[in-house]
Amino acid sequence: MGRYIARRLGQGLVVIFGVTIFVFVITRLIGDPVKFMLPLSATPEQREARRAAMGLDDGILTQFFRFIGDLLRLDLGESTYVRGQSALSVVFDYLPRTLQLVALGMIFAVVLSIPLGVLASRKPGGITDRILTTLSLIGLSMPQFFLGFMLLIAFTVKLQWFETGPGPWTTNLVLPAVCLALPAIGRLSIVVRSSMIDEMNTQYVKVAKAKGMTQRRIMGVHALRNAGIPYVTLLGWEIIRALAGYTVVVESVFNWPGLGFMAKTAIKNQDFYLIQAIVFVIAVIVVLLNIVIDIAYKVLDPRVDLQ
Amino acid sequence: MTVPDEYTSELHDVEEAEHAEEALHGRPFELAAVRSRSGLLPDLVRDRLGFASLIFLVLLILSAIFGPMILDIDPNAGNLSNAMQPPVWHGGSWDHIFGTDWQGYDVLSRLLAGARTSLIIGVLVVLFAGTFGVLIGLWAGYKGGRTDRWLMGWVDVQVSFPGLLLAMLLIALVGGSVASITFILAVNGWMVYGRMTRGVVLSVKERPFVEAAEIIGCKPKRVVFTHILPNLVTPLATLAVLEFARIILAEAALSFLGLGIQYPGVSWGLDISRAGDHELFGNQWLIIYPGVLLSLTVLAVNLLSSWLRVALDPQEREKKFAAAAIGSGKGAA
Q1: Which of B169, B316, B26 is nearest to A280 (CA)?
Q2: Is B332–A275 a contact, with Cβ atoms under 8 angstroms apart?
Q3: In sequence order, which residues have a C-beta less than 8 Å from that of residue A147 and are 6 or more positions away?
Q4: Which of A175, A285, B201, B321 has the fewest CB atoms within 10 Å of its CB?
Q5: Is some CB atom of chain A closer than 8 A to the CB atom of B160?
């Protein structure tokens, strides 16, 4: 187990390093942060001077080695969009809001997808099953940004129950979290349904039935626990996908100022240092989550061999 | 799931026996469709949702191809004096069937142009990513050993990248056009095919017919392409259809974020974003038209793929009908 984790951490470092270098190269090719930093009236000489001061006119290799040196000291430079702050501190200012969003969204997803999936699996092919399966498919087929606008039109514009933008979670975070959760609910409940159907046809369930155990206990205690193994893996992937992508979309629909919103802004303003810091932090989180998922898999299912 | 054995001890229970009888009653009828091999189309017609999806998609493809020719309105020809015309069914004119938006753009022509963008990018990305992924997967699976480890290591590393973020960065670099988005989504999406192909190759490689081909002296190329590749058709077809849906969503999301298709290109995602910025408190239909079309397209593709998965795989069929038969008795399927 210890060796396995060490090896995975090693692989993770390779991924993080690879992503960081990739982003370094891309950001150096994208454009010129100075263009956005100085007022439009700045003369070419002033721009040139600023570029020199930032070390942007050194050779790409010089820049690269300086970058690696800074990276090893976890110095990712100063943000050019949020003036006077280090890029990493900007990331840590915005990250908590994204984590809140993902956490609430995933709580919704878990709380709803398990009962819905179990309900659908009770009578495969029955009317409840067909309605729930179709609803899940609709949920996972709707693009999140469109879903977000529909929620906004219904609950913010027409009913005025919720607000957008930063604010307390009861009024401002519920809608984005629902929007983040709905496609996940669709995908997860389909998985719960099909693995429950599989489990209900196993020998141990027949034994449980034969000795007179109630349906509720068989499903709720025995089958659900085994069906939970693939579920945990998929939930982990949902979290990863949310962090590394979906929040960008959801946050920009609802103006929720989290890291995803900031990522979009940083790319549009060609803020090299901030982009690097965001991708770096997200890559670290994703790598760690991947390892946690694998370990959880092992803990839940002793048959899995992690070598 | 294993297919339940009809002659088990369950028959002691009267209720269970009835159940089993119903199950038996339902199955041969359904399984007849598998045996008779009457072709896919009749089977699809029986699956009402799948059939409706197919019809929807065919209509969409036809209107994406021919619609702009018949309608002949430039989707980017704005005329502010013509802005916010109502659609025909609200007393608008036949010049603009779905009305116009706040810039005077014709809504219907933009919807059709958006359909074109989505479908072209979806098809091209599936084609490129699929070809590349299958080749890599075949190579890794057939060669094995170090080649396999390196190629699959590459897949693993790329899979753990935060995909959408990197796609956004790349598009910021090269600019958003149909070609660049196609390229970037393909670079981002070939890994699934690689993994799946490798898995199938590994399971097929040891089978007697492959060994026989090798023994009679077939070259590796021939073994791979004429003996192994045909086994991939079924899983690949299902995967490709699912990926098509995912790609359409990805393109729309990128365009929505302003990092995909740009003016003068037209995309549903871009139009939802424009209308969302401008008409959230105004004429919300301008958000709803492209959004519903996009959702329906993805839904139809998803429904079609779930039908396809069952139809192409006898084991899945057996599973579905057996489960349905046991679950709901006579009302199977």
Answers
A1: B169
A2: no
A3: A179, A182, A183
A4: A285
A5: yes
Within 8 A by CB and 6+ apart from B267, the residues are: B114, B117, B118, B251, B252, B255, B260, B261
Gap between the Cα atoms of A296 and A274, Å rounded: 33
Could you tell me which CATH number the domain at A1-307 has?
1.10.3720.10
Closest residue, chain B, to A130 (C-alpha): B333
Residues of chain B neighbouring A263 (CB-CB closer than 8 A): 165, 168
Q: Could you say which residues from 76 to 115 on chain B have a Cβ atom under 8 Å away from some Cβ of chain A?
A: none
Measured between CB atoms, which of A18, A157, A243 is closest to B157? Answer: A18
Centre a 10 Å sphere on the Cβ of residue A220 and count the other Cβ atoms it contains. 12
Could you identify the residue written with the tokens 């009913």?
A159
Query: Residue A87: what residue type?
Result: A
CATH class of the domain comprising B41-312? mainly alpha
SS3 state at A78: strand
Q: Where are the domains of chain A?
A: 1-307
- Chain A contact for B170, CB < 8 A? yes
Tell me which of A8-12, A177-181, B317-321 is least confident: B317-321
- The span from the CA of A94 to the CA of A260, in Å, is 9
pLDDT per residue rounded down to tens, chain B (333 residues): 333 333 333 333 444 444 444 444 444 444 444 444 556 677 777 777 888 888 999 999 988 888 877 777 777 777 777 767 777 777 767 677 777 777 778 778 888 888 888 999 999 999 999 999 999 988 888 888 888 888 888 887 777 776 777 888 888 777 778 888 899 889 888 888 988 888 888 888 888 888 888 888 888 888 888 888 888 887 888 888 888 988 998 899 888 888 888 878 888 888 888 887 877 777 778 788 888 999 999 999 988 888 887 777 666 666 555 554 444 433 333
Non-local CB neighbours of A28 within 8 Å, separated by 6+ positions: A60, A63, A272
**Which residues sit opposite B100 in a β-bridge?**
B106
Give the Cα separation of A10 and A31 in Å (integer).
Answer: 33
- Burial letters for A45-82: b for 16+ Cβ neighbours within 10 Å, e otherwise? eeeeeebeebeeeeeeeebeeebeeebeeeebbbbbbb
Contacts from B135-139 at CB under 8 Å and sequence distance 24+?
Answer: B136/B190, B136/B194, B136/B197, B137/B193, B137/B194, B137/B195, B137/B196, B137/B197, B137/B198, B137/B200, B137/B201, B138/B197, B138/B198, B138/B201, B138/B224, B138/B228, B138/B229
Q: What are the boundaries of each domain within chain B?
A: 41-312
Please tell me the number of Cα atoms within 13 Å of B128 on its side-chain side: 17
Q: Which residue type is seen at A213? A: M
Q: Residue A183: which of B245, B275, B62 has the closest Cα? A: B245
Task: Check if B53 contacts A (Cβ < 8 Å).
Answer: no
Q: Is the dihedral of CA B135, B141, B143, B145 positive or negative?
A: positive
Task: Report residue B101: phi and psi, to 5°.
Answer: -95, -170
A118: number of Cβ within 10 Å: 18
Please report where in the chains the tokens 């359904």 appear, as a residue: B30
**Euclidean distance between CA atoms B330 and B28, whole angstroms:** 12
Question: Which H/E stretch holds residue B30?
Answer: helix B14-36
Do A156 and A165 form a contact (C-beta atoms < 8 A)? Answer: no
Question: Given an 8 Å threshold on Cβ–Cβ distance, is A142 in contact with B295?
Answer: yes
**Average pLDDT of chain B, as a whole number:** 76
What pTM was computed for the model?
0.80
| Residue written as token pair 């753990």 | B160
